[in-house]
């Protein structure tokens, strides 16, 4: 797999209609996901997904890029330097 990095990915879902597509993308990248926490924030009408990842920069960027293209979704990654 080459050089891998450890990081976190935060996803805020404003549109519940896209959760199926998010889950499909996460399933596609299951090999780099170490842990996942989903929080339905009902009073604000959003869902928050926190991921711990360990993978190549290409894989992490590919996953966040696909998720970020979805309407009603915000995604940010914080990656270790080593």
TrEMBL record:
Annotated Pfam families: TM1266-like (PF21699)
Species for this entry: Mailhella massiliensis
InterPro entries (UniProt xref): Acetolactate_synth/TF_NikR_C, ACT-like_dom_sf, FeFe-hyd_TM1266
Membrane-spanning residues: none
Protein name, UniProt field: Iron-only hydrogenase system regulator
Highest taxon of source: Bacteria
